[in-house]
């Protein structure tokens, strides 16, 4: 039998995602009620400016007083799609204090203050769900937290930022430079007016922190994620990748160490072979591999951003939280029992693609090779091209630590025969 008293929802934010959440809640109210077992009522929508036109959004629900909205004693669930650290954090904590569950899409806040938010939710006996914080519509957090709860996840690797994937894809397929590709991404709405969070890897790093924490049952913050963006990726890097049968992607990589005593989380551009499934992920799509001991390799693929995809994930969480509310229960608690430390990037082992501009004369290759050997970095392949006294060397290493490679590059830069270390890029996806 369906409960007659409606569950009341407060929506914080009515931008691209928030307006789509409001629209779906309004137009599919009967379906949502049937799935939940009770009517769901949108009780108020907090916005910064109430005067802006918002087609399809009930104007009488708009308010600029978010504090008062979350402080109402009759609110069952607060949906937060404002973003940023404050005032979102304050409003979420106030919602918990007033006994409301929270559904959030705020990756930056969760990656920074997830421990505090989870502790507050647990103390209040309410849910904190955030499927929409990572990879848009792709079901990823719930499978990691629930479907794979009985398995041991060892690695999560994927493309989790649509803007950077679009830019790199255009650089690869059209030969465009970084600036041209970014301009196209902006014109199509894939990149923000200020794209820093995307192109410098901050967005992907926040998502990597969340994924690593859930996958390995430990606490990982965005500050512990090694981060490189794509602003230094050049057309020459893309061409070098093609010559190797690879493509360049911005990857988020979370790994449990072989001894099980630590974890690593990193975001950086990398060359991956065309034979790897991630190489075929085009334009603004996301894809994530999860490697677990019993389940093996699982791939999750789909649109990673946008109003409708993100709203889909928000509504999925809303249904789950409302069901829990009716049953007087909460979902899985925050699981951080392993307490594994995050290993610094200097200790991470990977392969490297190093491009050098050198003098075109006898003995240079031997000189360069001896520097790699001196620092324990073995060479897999070398490609040499020369012209008019100048030459380029492209060296692909076997697996080595970041610290060893850095020491090698420092020594190479000191050689008279090396004019420039043109680029360094990691190679992944073997």
Automatic annotation (TrEMBL):
Catalytic reactions of this protein: L-homoserine + NADP(+) = L-aspartate 4-semialdehyde + NADPH + H(+); L-homoserine + NAD(+) = L-aspartate 4-semialdehyde + NADH + H(+)
Family statement: Belongs to the homoserine dehydrogenase family.
Keyword Methyltransferase included in the entry's annotation: no
Domain of life: Bacteria
Protein name: Homoserine dehydrogenase
Keywords: Amino-acid biosynthesis, Methionine biosynthesis, NADP, Oxidoreductase, Sodium, Threonine biosynthesis
EC number: 1.1.1.3
Cofactor dependency: a metal cation
Pfam families linked to this entry: ACT (PF01842), Homoserine_dh (PF00742), NAD_binding_3 (PF03447)
Reported function: Catalyzes the conversion of L-aspartate-beta-semialdehyde (L-Asa) to L-homoserine (L-Hse), the third step in the biosynthesis of threonine and methionine from aspartate.
InterPro entries in UniProt: ACT-like_dom_sf (IPR045865), ACT_dom (IPR002912), Asp/hSer_DH_NAD-bd (IPR005106), HDH (IPR016204), HDH_cat (IPR001342), HDH_CS (IPR019811), NAD(P)-bd_dom_sf (IPR036291)
UniProt entry tagged with the keyword Nucleotide-binding: no
Organism: Kitasatospora cinereorecta
GO molecular function list: homoserine dehydrogenase activity
Pathway: Amino-acid biosynthesis; L-threonine biosynthesis; L-threonine from L-aspartate: step 3/5; Amino-acid biosynthesis; L-methionine biosynthesis via de novo pathway; L-homoserine from L-aspartate: step 3/3
Domain (ACT): residue spans on this chain: 353-426
């Amino acid at each position: 039998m369906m409960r007659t008293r409606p569950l009341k929802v407060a929506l914080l934010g009515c931008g691209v995602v928030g307006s789509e959440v409001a629209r779906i809640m309004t137009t599919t109210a009967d379906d949502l009620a049937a799935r939940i077992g009770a009517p769901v009522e949108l009780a108020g929508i907090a916005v910064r400016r109430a005067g802006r036109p918002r087609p399809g959004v009930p104007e009488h629900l708009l308010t600029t007083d978010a504090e008062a909205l979350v402080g109402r004693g009759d609110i069952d669930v607060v949906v937060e799609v404002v973003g940023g650290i404050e005032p979102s954090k304050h409003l979420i904590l106030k919602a918990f204090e007033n006994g409301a569950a929270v559904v959030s899409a705020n990756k930056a806040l969760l990656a920074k203050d997830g421990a505090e938010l989870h502790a507050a939710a647990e103390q209040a006996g309410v849910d904190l769900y955030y499927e929409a914080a990572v990879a848009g519509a792709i079901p990823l957090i719930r499978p990691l937290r629930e479907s794979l709860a009985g398995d041991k996840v060892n690695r999560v690797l994927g493309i989790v930022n649509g803007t950077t994937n679009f830019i790199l894809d255009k650089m690869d397929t059209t030969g465009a430079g970084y600036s041209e590709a970014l301009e196209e991404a902006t014109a199509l709405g894939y990149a923000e007016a200020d794209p820093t969070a995307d192109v410098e890897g901050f967005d992907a790093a926040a998502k990597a922190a969340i994924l690593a924490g859930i996958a390995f049952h430990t606490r990982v913050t965005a500050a512990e994620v090694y981060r490189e963006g794509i602003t230094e990726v050049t057309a020459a890097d893309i061409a070098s990748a093609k010559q190797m049968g690879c493509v360049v992607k911005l990857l988020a990589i979370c790994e449990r160490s072989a001894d099980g005593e630590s974890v690593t989380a990193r975001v950086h551009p990398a060359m991956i072979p065309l034979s790897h499934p991630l190489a075929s992920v085009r334009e603004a799509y996301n894809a994530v591999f999860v490697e677990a001991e019993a389940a093996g390799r699982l791939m999750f693929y789909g649109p990673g951003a946008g109003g409708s995809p993100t709203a889909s994930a928000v509504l999925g969480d809303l249904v789950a939280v409302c069901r829990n509310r009716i049953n007087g229960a909460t979902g899985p608690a925050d699981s951080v029992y392993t307490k594994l430390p995050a290993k610094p990037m200097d200790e991470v082992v990977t392969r490297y693609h190093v491009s050098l501009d050198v003098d075109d004369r006898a003995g240079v290759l031997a000189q360069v090779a001896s520097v790699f050997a001196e620092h324990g970095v073995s060479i897999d392949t070398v490609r040499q091209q020369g012209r008019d006294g100048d030459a380029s060397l492209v060296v692909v290493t076997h697996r080595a630590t970041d610290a060893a490679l850095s020491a090698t590059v420092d020594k190479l830069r000191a050689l008279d025969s090396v004019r420039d270390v043109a680029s360094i890029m990691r190679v992944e996806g073997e």
